[in-house]
Amino acid sequence: MSQDSTSHQWKTLDQDLNRLSRLEAATMYSARPLVGVGISLVFVTLAALAAALFTGGEPQGLAVVVAAAFGAYMALNIGANDVANNMGPAVGAKALSMLGAIAIAAICESAGALLAGGDVVSTISKGIIDPQGLADGRVFVWAMMAALLSASIWVNIATWIGAPVSTTHSVVGGVMGAGIAAAGLGTVSWPTMGAIAASWVISPLLGGVIAAAMLAFIKWRVIYVADKIAAARVWVPVLIGVMSAAFATYLSIKGLSHVMKIGLPLALTIGAAAGVLVWLISVPFIRRQSRGMENRNRSLKTLFRLPLVVSAGLLSFAHGANDVANAVGPLAAVVYAQQSAEVAGEVSIPLWVMVIGALGISFGLVLFGPKLIGMVGSQITKLNPMRAYCVALSAAVTVIAASWLGLPVSSTHIAVGGVFGVGFFREWYMERRARRIADNRPVAQRIARQERARRKLVRRSHFMTIVAAWVVTVPAAALLSALCFWLLQGLGF
Fold first, then answer.
1. For residue 4, what are the CA distances in angstroms to 1, 7, 8, 15?
2. Domain boundaries, the chain
3. pLDDT tens for residues 353-368?
4. Which one, 44, 211, 250, 276, has least CB within 10 Å?
């Protein structure tokens, strides 16, 4: 065989191997989402088996098994959608890698759910349904199962289209729809639903305004001063102290309530003490960290990085403590109703139910969370550690303010509203600055108004998609829940 012929054969073989390599890579890429789906199905199956084990031998145990599967599915969706709001800004600001954010969030979410998650949860979510309308135990079980399944489906759809939605509102819509299907419109507490609807506006506005105000303060007192480092040594510890005070207050209300009764005045006192203590610790830490830094904005970003990472972890802990009930509250209600043959407004959550919720949130985050983490962190508006810190601080302060005022706000709406608030404030500030510069330039060198208007710092397509998803969450979940209720009723679990 000639040398040319041999060379041609090797070249042909190389081309064939390259084609196979590309085919293999394409197959692995296309199969990657199926891995997450497969692991999710295994987790849902294990949750159902655990329910069968813990309720073995009890009458009508099938309902608990199915409800456990629905609860596990809901927990997966909470992890995929809701956690992005806490970790997205830190990842977008490059204070955390995606892998680091997922690891911290998984640990903190699970710890929050298991250590500070509610021992007692309202089964008729926030009193939106009259328990007398669901006095029949079987009807009550169908309603809770329908609420879980419908909320899960809706959050799954929202995650697929890239819209961070409120899982609390999804469960509320699910409970409302099932209640209407079971007992008619009269069973719904419409004043409560009106307050929840008002929170669609209140939550993002509060989050956006506070985040924008914090960014304005940082620009005024730290960024646009002659000696940035000296200003940062004064104000960064103060901001860290404020953040610590907000979280200590929130976690006192959530966590210590299991040990003793904590009112808001005492929680605020604990928060103030924690804030002062952390401020005192932060002063020498920031002074040491800033030693030798150049007088430029890049140095400031470094000083905000560690506080931002800590705040993201605390937000995840608080979220796990607060939102695990969205996954396991209705499941706990089904377990109680099946064990006692009674309907109760509040029930204790068994440990195995809490474990399903905590693990489900972590699995959902690891398997499906990166999509929305990336969207919230970098696709709405550009974030750096200072802007992301304003979002985190806004989320903590707004939740405390809302608790004090008794407003039913959504942590999802607050966090995403904070991102929008930072972006729109930057747009306003840059437009104001551009106009001022343009007024001092010759007419030929000025940027046209239309060109300035085109240079938006917030992506309008994401803004419209997210707002639309917020508006339709409750009615969409309610409609799905009514359909699920009639289906479950027909199947007769």
1. 8, 5, 6, 16
2. 36-491
3. 888 888 888 888 888 8
4. 276
